[in-house]
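Onboarding guide, step 5: your first structure request.
Type a short instruction followed by the sequence, for example:

Predict the 3D structure of this protein.
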Amino acid sequence: MHYLRSILFDAAVVVLTVVVALSMPFMALFNASSATVRAVSQVWANGIMFLMKYVVGLDYRVEGREHVPDGPCIIACNHQSLWETAALCAMFPDASIVAKKELRKLPLVGWFLERYPMILVDRSAGRQALRQMVDEARRAVGEGRKVLLFPQGTRQAIDDPVTFQSAGISALYTNLEVPVVPAACNSGLFWGKKTLMMHSGTITLSFLPPIAPGLPRKEFQEKMERAIAEEAGRLLTVSEAKVR
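The system replies with structure tokens like these:
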């Protein structure tokens, strides 16, 4: 049954993506604003969440939503599957996600990412990439938007050690002077890193108390990494996070 549901979900996502993509020529023709592109992208993100719930039977719950300020901030979440990308986009429709530049090459997706705009980083560019990321994130914050990123750098399986690539998040923290909200989820229990198979159940997404700006870089890194790793571990062991 899980296999069949996953196949139906994938087919429905293709249909949804094609339908949303039909708007692209019109938006390009009329030079649609970033706000318009984000609004159309929300149709896709919320559609994904709808399909997960009603086709796969994969729902979610949120803990600690009160820790996320109304204004600009940085949300740093662990990364176990594609679920948290869609979920965070749906929850924070005006936010910019820090993502790898290679995504720009994807048909249709790349067009939307550039005009959202997302913060697309060339990981091979070193310090130049960090400067670009900080500049684009500063622009997003100046517009009153949130910045989302996954400080692990890539998806990690639930049985892998939690490791971080903290240069990016630390650069944002020290330059933007906005709070960082650590977050953790257990999506990998239901949607593994190397498989399209999805399981029904309830994912938990937990937002933790924000880290105020002003800490020394090293102290911030240790505090953020510890908070995410400990919460991710807790979510993997809670009794309600069982795959059905």
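Each response can be followed by summary notes, for example: The helical segments are 2-21, 24-29, 34-56, 83-91, 109-115, 127-142, 167-176, 217-237.
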